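Incident review: delayed structure delivery

Summary: a single-chain prediction request sat in the queue longer than the usual turnaround. Root cause was a stuck worker, restarted by the on-call engineer. No data loss occurred. The affected request and its eventual output are reproduced below so the record is complete for anyone auditing the incident later.

Affected input:
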Amino acid sequence: MDADELLVARVTTTIVAGGRRYPIRKGVTVVHRDDPVVQGRQQLFRPLTVTRLGGRPVRSETATAGPGEFRGPVLPPEPEPEAPAGPLETWTRKELADECRARGLPTSGTKDELIGRLTAGGPGAG
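Output delivered after worker restart:
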Protein backbone atom coordinates (compact mmCIF):
# COMPACT_ATOMS: atom_id res chain seq x y z
CA MET A 1 0.00 0.00 0.00
CA ASP A 2 1.42 3.39 -1.02
CA ALA A 3 1.40 6.36 1.37
CA ASP A 4 -0.45 8.44 -1.24
CA GLU A 5 -3.47 6.16 -0.70
CA LEU A 6 -3.64 7.07 3.00
CA LEU A 7 -5.39 9.99 4.68
CA VAL A 8 -5.08 11.37 8.21
CA ALA A 9 -7.89 13.06 10.16
CA ARG A 10 -8.04 16.89 10.20
CA VAL A 11 -10.46 17.00 13.17
CA THR A 12 -11.49 14.97 16.19
CA THR A 13 -15.06 13.74 15.80
CA THR A 14 -17.23 10.63 15.66
CA ILE A 15 -18.49 9.34 12.33
CA VAL A 16 -21.54 7.09 12.04
CA ALA A 17 -21.35 4.78 9.01
CA GLY A 18 -23.16 1.54 8.35
CA GLY A 19 -24.84 1.72 11.76
CA ARG A 20 -21.49 1.84 13.61
CA ARG A 21 -19.75 4.72 15.37
CA TYR A 22 -16.13 5.40 14.51
CA PRO A 23 -14.11 7.74 16.76
CA ILE A 24 -11.77 9.89 14.67
CA ARG A 25 -8.77 11.67 16.27
CA LYS A 26 -7.09 14.65 14.60
CA GLY A 27 -3.60 13.76 13.40
CA VAL A 28 -3.88 10.19 14.73
CA THR A 29 -6.56 8.34 12.76
CA VAL A 30 -5.21 7.10 9.42
CA VAL A 31 -7.53 5.57 6.81
CA HIS A 32 -7.32 4.38 3.22
CA ARG A 33 -8.82 6.90 0.78
CA ASP A 34 -11.36 4.26 -0.40
CA ASP A 35 -12.62 3.51 3.14
CA PRO A 36 -16.43 3.85 3.39
CA VAL A 37 -15.95 6.13 6.43
CA VAL A 38 -14.23 8.67 4.14
CA GLN A 39 -16.85 8.68 1.38
CA GLY A 40 -18.74 11.99 1.43
CA ARG A 41 -16.49 13.24 4.26
CA GLN A 42 -13.25 13.91 2.37
CA GLN A 43 -12.99 17.41 3.91
CA LEU A 44 -12.42 15.78 7.33
CA PHE A 45 -9.18 14.18 6.10
CA ARG A 46 -5.92 15.28 4.43
CA PRO A 47 -3.24 13.27 2.63
CA LEU A 48 -0.81 11.55 4.96
CA THR A 49 2.68 13.05 4.75
CA VAL A 50 5.48 10.50 5.04
CA THR A 51 8.96 11.75 5.89
CA ARG A 52 11.92 9.59 5.00
CA LEU A 53 14.83 9.80 7.38
CA GLY A 54 17.22 9.26 4.47
CA GLY A 55 20.19 7.74 6.23
CA ARG A 56 20.16 10.06 9.23
CA PRO A 57 20.76 8.11 12.41
CA VAL A 58 17.74 7.65 14.64
CA ARG A 59 18.46 7.58 18.35
CA SER A 60 16.65 4.80 20.12
CA GLU A 61 16.26 3.57 23.65
CA THR A 62 18.92 1.30 25.03
CA ALA A 63 18.56 -1.17 27.85
CA THR A 64 21.11 0.79 29.85
CA ALA A 65 19.44 4.23 29.54
CA GLY A 66 19.35 5.85 32.95
CA PRO A 67 17.36 8.73 34.43
CA GLY A 68 17.53 11.77 32.19
CA GLU A 69 18.96 9.87 29.23
CA PHE A 70 17.14 9.82 25.91
CA ARG A 71 14.45 7.16 25.55
CA GLY A 72 12.54 6.59 22.32
CA PRO A 73 12.86 7.46 18.62
CA VAL A 74 13.26 10.99 17.28
CA LEU A 75 10.10 11.86 15.36
CA PRO A 76 9.71 14.85 13.02
CA PRO A 77 7.16 17.47 14.11
CA GLU A 78 3.68 17.02 12.64
CA PRO A 79 3.03 19.50 9.81
CA GLU A 80 0.44 22.22 10.31
CA PRO A 81 -3.01 21.34 8.91
CA GLU A 82 -3.53 22.32 5.30
CA ALA A 83 -6.23 24.73 4.19
CA PRO A 84 -9.70 23.10 3.98
CA ALA A 85 -10.52 21.35 0.72
CA GLY A 86 -13.44 22.64 -1.31
CA PRO A 87 -15.48 25.82 -0.90
CA LEU A 88 -16.58 26.41 2.70
CA GLU A 89 -20.07 27.33 1.48
CA THR A 90 -20.63 23.65 0.59
CA TRP A 91 -19.78 22.44 4.11
CA THR A 92 -22.49 21.72 6.66
CA ARG A 93 -22.73 23.89 9.77
CA LYS A 94 -21.44 20.97 11.87
CA GLU A 95 -18.39 20.52 9.62
CA LEU A 96 -17.67 24.26 9.85
CA ALA A 97 -18.03 24.15 13.65
CA ASP A 98 -15.68 21.13 13.82
CA GLU A 99 -13.07 23.01 11.77
CA CYS A 100 -13.48 26.11 14.00
CA ARG A 101 -13.01 23.89 17.08
CA ALA A 102 -9.87 22.35 15.56
CA ARG A 103 -8.47 25.87 15.02
CA GLY A 104 -9.41 27.07 18.51
CA LEU A 105 -12.13 29.42 17.24
CA PRO A 106 -15.62 29.91 18.72
CA THR A 107 -18.15 27.41 17.33
CA SER A 108 -21.37 29.34 17.97
CA GLY A 109 -23.29 31.37 15.40
CA THR A 110 -24.72 30.97 11.94
CA LYS A 111 -23.08 29.16 9.06
CA ASP A 112 -22.06 32.55 7.58
CA GLU A 113 -20.45 33.59 10.87
CA LEU A 114 -18.48 30.34 11.03
CA ILE A 115 -17.29 30.79 7.46
CA GLY A 116 -16.27 34.33 8.39
CA ARG A 117 -14.18 33.06 11.29
CA LEU A 118 -12.49 30.48 9.11
CA THR A 119 -11.68 33.02 6.40
CA ALA A 120 -10.69 35.62 9.07
CA GLY A 121 -12.46 38.67 7.84
CA GLY A 122 -16.14 38.00 7.23
CA PRO A 123 -19.14 38.22 9.58
CA GLY A 124 -18.44 36.71 12.99
CA ALA A 125 -14.67 37.00 12.71
CA GLY A 126 -12.78 38.17 15.73
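Verification: Residues 93-102 form the longest helix (10 residues).
Action items: add queue-age alerting; document worker restart procedure.
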